[in-house]
Structure formats: C-alpha cells, structure tokens
Amino acid sequence: MGGRRQQESGPKKVKATALQIEVSLEDLYNGKEMEVPIERHRICGKCNGVGGSDPNAVKTCTGCKGKGMRTVMMQLGPGMYSQRTGPCDECGGKGQSIDPAKMCKDCKGKKIKKENKQLQVEIDKGAPNGERYTKHGEGDEVPEAEAGDVIIIIQEKKHKLFKRKGADLFMEKEITLIEALTGLDFVLTHLDGRKVRIQNKPGEVIKPESVFTCENLGMPFHKRTYQNGNLFITFKIKFPNTVDNKSADLLKSALTGQAAVAPAKGGKGGAAKKDEDAGGPVDETCELKTFSENHRNTDHRGGDQHDHHEDDEDEDEDGHHHGGQRVGCQQQ
Ligand SMILES: [Zn+2]
Ligand SMILES: [Zn+2]
Questions:
Q1: In angstroms, what is the span from residue 103 Cα to ligand 2's centroid?
Q2: Which of 14, 170, 259, 293 could be a cystine partner for 163, CB 3.0 to 4.6 Å?
Q3: pTM metric for this prediction
Q4: CA–CA separation, 144 and 13 (whole Å)
C-alpha cells in the first residue's frame, strides 16, 4: 500500500485547446487578420489564484494532506481488507479548505475564472485547409502550472465557383456554341475582387469538356506568395436545341467553305441529302431518342431484372421479364 510515485519533471502544462474556424477561400487567397472568440479558464485576478483574501485563509486539508485523494482501508471480513482510493470527503477532493469569511468573492474559492477573449490570428496567404496556428499560453490556466496553448485549425469553406487543389483552382464555365466556335471573351471576378478578362486564341475552337489553363490565376503559394498556382477552366458548351434548315445550310457553308445546296422542296435541307448520297442506299433508319434510364437492358435476357437479381438465374421461368424497355429502330 505504498503511495503513488509522483513523477514530475518541470512545471506542468495545461492541455492545449483545439479550435476549428471556417475560413473563406477569399480570406485564404488574400490573407486575413481574424478575431477568434474563445472561452477559457484563467487564474482569478482578484485573489491571484489563492482562492481567499489572504494566503492564511486557505488551509491544507488534514484528511488527505492536500492530495485531494484518500486511501481507505475497509474490513471485508476476518483478516480480509480492501483498499479503496477515492476523492477526500473532508475537502471534496480539493486538498484544501478555505475559510468562508475570507473566500474570494470573484472566483468563489475556485482560484480560476471563466472568461471570454478575442484572439488575433494572422491567416497567411495561401494557407492550406487544416493549417494550424498555435497561440502559446492563451488557453486554460490553473495554479502552479503553465497555461495551455490554443491551437486554431483552419477549415476551408466551400466556394460557389472555385474548387481548390493544392495551389491550383478549378472552375467550370458554360459558354454558348457560338462562343465555342467564334471566340470567347468574358470577365472573371477573382478572389481578391479584381476583374480578369479571359479570352481564347483567335480562331481556336473550344470543345465540350475541354480544359484550359489560366496561368498564375490560382492560389498564392503558401509562404512563397510571390508565386501563384494556375486556374483550370472546364468548358461546358450550351448547344441550341434546334437548328432550322436555313440556318443549317448557312452553318454548313460557313464551316465547310462549300456553297449550300438549295433546300429541297418540302423536304430536308441539303445537309441530310449529301450524306445519303455518299452512303448509298440504307437498310434502316434510326431516329435518335433522348436517353432515359429505362432504356437500359441491364440483363442479358433483355429488360431490367433488378427485382430478381438475388434469385438464381435458372429459377424464374414464369415471365418475370418485365422492367426495362428496349429502344428499337424501325426496320425499313
Ligand atoms: Zn482532503
Ligand atoms: Zn479569486
């Protein structure tokens, strides 16, 4: 029943407080001095952590000799003892008792007080998601120990336009077919508010889902802010839903440099005629339908048999082949 060995090297330090703060991509781009509100326990300033108006008001508990914990021997039966260690009942585990008349009114003898504080944090340009800023000694305090640190962890907020990967930015841009074919010129408002004119090379065609690089329009490099990553733009092309015959002929002549074939009376334009001529007689014609999920035949026997996929293959012979529809083309 020897007492516990106390191993203490140097002053104790209170555990650090970790705090996550959400930071916008704009603030990570530009850098920002932020005020972070925290709630912490600090040594009571009124009694300087004594707990009473004078040091004599505080007495070491005789029951536990100030340890706060007490080991009690309990007799279970003849010659049988049990040892139990628990909080001291004389001082309520505090190890001390304070004369109620001299008890500090500010902290009510607890020696520490809760307080709110605004911590200044300098978010640097290009700081990554998850970056930690340590404010030494700004956390909780208890008597006879070093105050704990506050660790502020950056959590990058989602941005409505840009996605960030490392020092690069990604965005999608919808443009019209006309822009894709004849040239693109638009103004992008960047994360620092500056307006950047984006143009492609004259004569260059932008294809659907193609990716273009805007050099140096990415995030500032962290700790090397004189350099920037790149911005990658994926283009979505907005196609017209329909093109009438006259426009089709104009487009054709514009894109091929050939004169348009005069539209056939009451029939299709020159565009369709030309292909038929080139390919010779056809065996069938298929008109495209807009894709729908129920067009799929996910089963080898046709249709969608997902309702029965847990069953054995040879089990169902009694007409469970419903579900998916097949899209057929008409035989001519
Ligand atoms: Zn005690
Ligand atoms: Zn106090």
A1: 8
A2: 170
A3: 0.69
A4: 9
